Amino acid sequence: MRTLQNVFATLLAALLEEIDQQLAEARDKHRDQLKDKRPTTLQTLFGDVTFRRNYYYDRQAGAYTFLLDAELGFDGAQSIRPCLEETAIELAVECSSYRKAARTLEAIVGYAVLSHEAIRQLVLAAPVSLHHPVSQRHGRVLLVEADGLFISRQGKGKRAKEQKILAVHEGWRRNGSQLELVNRRHYLHEGPGDVWEGFEAWLMKEYAYDPCRDLLVINGDAASWITACREYFGKRACFQLDRFHVARELRQCLSGHPRWREVRKKLAKQDEEGLLVELNSAVGTLGDEAKEEQLAEMIRRIEAMPGCIRDYREWLSAQGVETAGMRPMGHAESVMSRFAYRVKSRRSWKDQGLWAFLKAMVAQIDGIGWRTGQLEEEEPQRAASTPTKLERIKQAKRKAGRLLAEVMRQNIPCLQRSSGTPIYQALSALRDGGWM
Prior knowledge:
Elements lengths: L1 H25 L5 E13 L2 E12 L4 E3 L1 H6 L9 H13 L3 H12 L6 H10 L15 E11 L9 E9 L2 E4 L2 E4 L3 E4 L6 H12 L8 E6 L3 H4 L1 H5 L3 E5 L1 H12 L5 H9 L3 H11 L6 H16 L7 H7 L13 H12 L7 H16 L13 H4 L5 H13 L2 H8 L10 H11 L4
Parallel strand pairs: 4-9, 9-10
Antiparallel strand pairs: 1-2, 2-3, 4-5, 5-8, 6-7
Helix pairs in contact: 1-17, 1-18, 3-4, 3-5, 3-15, 4-5, 5-15, 9-10, 9-12, 10-11, 11-12
């Protein structure tokens, strides 16, 4: 690995310097005045790459510039390269902490390239845009899993705040032996505004949602902000109580009760009327005042939201929607577990840091790519000079490639032996026999 890193660093430096030389020869000498050569060091996944590039004074713009930076679209003053930045941010999302991400990156690269604080700053500065409209809709039904996550905030006396997260998809499809969600995306609610109003506006941008055509199936617990979807969307949406939360609450009340077995059967079949009959039959038989009150509250909740236990596919069928291939809802809890694993566990956050991290995490989960350290080309006409950029890079690669044998010899000790040594004779025999 060390040998590979050294070879890569040498060849990449030669490649960049060759491109810079080509730019120097092809430049408008009346406009770009060569001042000097300046060194820079880039941090990459293969280690540090140090090279020198030409520094110019642009007479027309009245500013100093590096033609190489403009040609390749990177900021030479930023030593960390985009590939390394992206890898560091992905590790920050996937690992349990920034420190673990730094240790994992060190294990990959072979040296301590970035500290945990440097990775945190990369996450804060990452230009993540969650605006990524789906390319193709597969029907008029959107399936929504809604839940909230209470996350501790930094600062004396600051209380935990709930982050509202909604997962959206259009159904399931089989990918080999695995099931995957179609057009899965996540909505992070920001600010004090109404969550469903913001969510509907987001659906219009990301899914081309049409309130007059599309239908929503919303699954979640009994939190007031979630059940408010019934009033906001009306007949356009079907709300279901998440069976994980319902089963957990019923277990707290009825575990060990004679009717617990029947209650579980009714819930598994999503038989709302049968479940209410069983629950009402258990009222007054629990022998615990707190459990009696909890059970009564659950009965009132289910009765106040008719259809919240029934199978949503019955509602869709009544709307004329084909439900073949649709599966029971319940994706929200696994989504929350993934977020909770990373942002909870005795951690506290500043609002800015939490929001930046959640955006990076959602981009990673949803497969929305981002690029860091990339410059916009202010003068595209200069980058389109002859020869073209692609031709220039190909020419530089051919020239740098001719250095490969010498670079390898310098980095592999056994290739530096004199001609009289056995290793030299063995390698020569392999070469002459066509083996290398």
